[in-house]
Amino acid sequence: MNALKSEPFVLNIGPQHPSTHGVFRVKVTVDGERIIDAEMVMGYLHRSMEKLAEERTYTQNIPFTDRTDYLSSMSNNLGYCLAVEKLATIEVPDRGSAIRVIMAEFQRIASHCMAAGAFTNDTGAWQTPVMWAFREREKILDLFEMTCGARLTCNYMRIGGVAFDLPKEFEPHARKLVDTLPGFVDELEGLMSENEIFLARTRGVAVVPHELAANASLAGPMLRGSGIAWDIRKADPYCGYEKYDFDIPIGYQGDSFDRFIVRLEEMRQSVKIIKQALDGLPSGPHSTQVPLALRPPKGEAYARVEGPRGELGYYLVSDEGPSPYRFHIRPPSFINLSVLKQMTVGHSVADAIVALGSVDIVVGEIDR
Amino acid sequence: MSLLMLITDNWYDIRDLGNVSHEILYQLDRVLPYSLVYIIAALMGFVASFLIFVLPSQLFVGVLGERKIIGRMQSRYGPNRVGKFGLLQPIADAIKLIQKEALTPKAADKAVMYIAPIVFVAPAVLLFAVVPFGGHSVFADIPVSIVYFIAISGLPVLAAFIGGWSHANKYSLFGSMRIVAMTISYEVPLVLSLLSVVLITGTMRLGGHDGIDGIVQWQRDYHIWLIFLQPLAFLIYFFCVSAELNRTPTDIAEAESEIVAGYLTEYSGMKWGLFYGMDIGYALAAAAFASTVFLGGWSMFGLDRWIPSWLIIIAKTHLFYFIFIWTRGTLPRLRIDQLMTFAWKFLLPLSLANLLVIATEKVIWNKATDGNFDNFWVYIFAAVNILLSVAAVFIWARLLGYRPEATPKRPRLVNTASGYVPIPAPSREVR
């Protein structure tokens, strides 16, 4: 009896695919359902932001950062403004810093809502968790709209502080929201983490051992899921994060499930930080006066923040001109994605989708 | 007084639609040749079982109800724009689907691609022929209805396979291969679980009425539903049928987030619409079959004397269908190897064990009552079987290595950024 002849074939996952979270393409070679090779193809959303930024003034570049990682514009604004402030040695008033912390943490919750929802969608929970997560994210976006008029691309942070002071109605609304958010996290946890099918799909899938995580320079929930306690807010505090009491959640073995529960726990910790920041919100100016045509002294600066997806770094070089000589972003999605091949090879196609979902990529940030 | 008059077995007795159709055919038989009456009878059966039950159910329960209920589960409204409460939404959808261009890829095998939806639709209609809507209102009251039902419900897989194969699309190929592999695996425990039902009732006829043996009539005679007598068989049937119907959590053949739409990837327009509509048709047929076999069919502990039997079976079918909607709205999807493991390692041994237990009980029943089976033993068997099923499911899951408490559900918390934190040795405190 002759054995059936079989040969591997190439399957394009993306650029148009329901689970690639944008226009991203993975060229996988599969042997039946098992993946034997994976090649990432990116650049479909390239807008050359880094080069464009060299032609615009420092203030004009802030809206660009909104559009790199469009799910966490506040964190991106914050990282860029911190880099410029470091370059030009500008002091930020206390109230400005506290507002920045509140906004960045709200943005982290909103982004993790999206990440957790989209991830459960990738495992096949047909839209229900993602809609529930959107419901909560909507309330946070309402707060952003109340404060700065925009929901997605906020453009709220300014060099030297924030654009506007908080409106009167912000604080009661924010307090009401932080009271209800832990309940939502519990709900999502009950719905997904306690679900046997979800556990079967994510436990032990797409494992990133801690050595690989450290060697690949991963950051954020990807790194913490592998059991490495590393958080820029603790390791290199900015905006007065050293004043707030919060914990770093870390996973056990670095599988998809660990990354999911780390994100859920980070939402709880963010709520804790927001509560403290709201309680200790200092009075005073929200921003310092910065010349419109800012010309920082010659030099370079690198500022990093803990974005929702990990270490978000901005590198700026100034030649005393009105615009940066070089503008570079360290995008956490891009670097976290670099281990995708190790995560998927040897697994099935269905697991590759789970692996990709657990990285929580934003293609706008990968391609910039 | 006038109400009591209605529950005679005259033609105006609407408890059983068979009465009125019988009367019509009887009168026609006097004036028309036999062959014509035969055709009219077939048409009436089709109209009664398909147009009255299947189509409205499909449109308003399947399309609208499913979308509405899932919408509520997802904290949104669902369709509410076309007509009052969105009631006309299914019709608007159908018009849209008919208007849409049905694209055919250049490399596709065109003939096969056209045939597949037709092959998919026909069995869905055929399935309802044997579902009893009352003691006499069965379209085709054949003595081996169960075998007929199983045989016909295996056909759509062929359509899904050739449809997916014909596209020359890799995602479709994945979907076709998955659906074939899964159906073959799940057909085995499904048949075994139904076999235990046949064993205890001693008949393969679905319906039956006073004087004629049938599964529904058996459940009426002994005043017990088979779900209580054979809970394990019911569970196995439910899992298998949801796998064969491609409902979540086993919808791997059209897994949206993995292989786009599986075997439906290249279908568009009404060709896709036929697949979509008939998916609901099959789900309804399976629900009707399950409520007939396990939930007492058109009988309701004597209530069927007062309530029209077709209303009872329709209500039961839709309640069962609600479970399908519910799982679709809440559960994630399993992977194909996990599904195969589940079928071969979990469902198959359990269904064999169930068969053994039922066979033993049948012998005991026969010996203990000297061949005249009485009610008393059925209730004892029901109690024993419920306990045995629960025990079997738990013990077998444990034996296969299911350890829920070994999985930590919460991350560890540390307060300083200190690099790698080794995993502590497993202790009883770790939840």
Overview of this protein structure:
The complex is a heterodimer of chains A (368) and B (431). Chain A contains 15 helices and ten strands. Chain A is α+β, with helices and mostly antiparallel strands and 368 residues long. Chain A has a three-stranded antiparallel beta sheet. In chain A, strands 8-9-10 form a three-stranded antiparallel beta sheet. Chain A is globular. The longest helix of chain B is centred in the first third of the chain and has 40 residues, at 34-73. With 431 residues, chain B is mainly α. The interface between A and B is large, with 57 and 47 residues. Strand 7 (248-250) of chain A pairs antiparallel with strand 1 of chain B.
Tags for this model:
heterodimer, A: 368 residues, alpha+beta, Cytochrome-c3 Hydrogenase, chain B, 3-stranded antiparallel β-sheet, 10 strands, B: 431 residues, mainly alpha, 16 helices, 64% helix, 1% strand, globular
Topology:
The complex is a heterodimer of chains A (368) and B (431).
Chain A: E1 9-13, E2 25-31, E3 34-41, H1 49-53, H2 62-66, H3 73-88, H4 94-122, H5 128-148, E4 157-158, E5 161-162, H6 170-193, H7 196-202, H8 210-215, H9 221-225, E6 228-229, H10 232-235, E7 248-250, H11 256-279, E8 299-307, E9 310-318, E10 326-330, H12 332-337, H13 340-344, H14 349-359, H15 363-367
Antiparallel strand pairs in A: 1-2, 2-3, 4-5, 8-9, 9-10
Helix pairs in contact in A: 3-4, 4-5, 4-11, 4-14, 5-6, 6-11, 11-14
Chain B: H1 2-6, H2 17-31, H3 34-73, H4 89-99, H5 110-127, H6 145-153, H7 155-166, H8 170-201, H9 215-221, H10 226-229, H11 231-244, H12 256-259, H13 269-293, H14 309-330, H15 336-368, H16 375-399, E1 412-414, E2 419-420
Helix pairs in contact in B: 2-3, 3-13, 3-14, 4-13, 5-6, 5-7, 5-13, 7-8, 8-11, 8-15, 11-15, 13-14, 15-16
